[in-house]
Amino acid sequence: MLRTTFQVLAWTSILAIVIITDGPIGLRPVTHLPGSVERFFALLTVATLFTLAYPNRISFIGLSLVLAVFVLEFAQVASFGRHARLRDAGVKVLGVFAGLAVGYFLRAGIDLIRARFSGDPKALPKAANQS
């Protein structure tokens, strides 16, 4: 159930990124944060959600999201009133890598909590078993 929720949120978030990145400029949400901060946290969120949704495919997720960042960034060249910047793509890629790390550690925490409350001491990692 939890994984399905993360899957729906992950795919919804990437759809939102596509619409916001390459759609009409009027669809962009307005915040008072610098654009680089918005880009970083948007891709951090997407990568975190995908890592939680598909925990056994972190490398594939990372590669796919980095590729998507560059494809979407350069697709802006065809969009009226938009411009592609390598710097923007770099900030987004950093957000992807940060999101992969956050998702990995959140998943590890979720798995540890589940194992602890399952009542099965063999389900816990060795370090947690030594209490």
Structure at a glance:
With 131 residues, this protein is mainly alpha-helical.
What does this structure look like?
- The chain contains 5 helices and no strands.
- By secondary structure, it is mainly alpha-helical.
- Helix 1 (2-22) packs antiparallel against helix 2 (35-53), helix 2 (35-53) packs parallel to helix 4 and helix 3 (58-75) packs antiparallel against helix 4.
- It is elongated, with a radius of gyration of 18 Å.
- The two termini are 30 Å apart.
Secondary structure blueprint with pairings:
Blueprint: H1 2-22, H2 35-53, H3 58-75, H4 86-118, H5 126-129
* Structural class label: mainly alpha
Order of helices and strands: HHHHH
Total count of helical runs of at least 4 residues: 5
- Roughly how much helix do the residues carry, as a percent range? over 70%
Largest sheet: none
Beta strand %: under 5%
Low-confidence stretches: 127-131
Rg for CA atoms: 18 Å
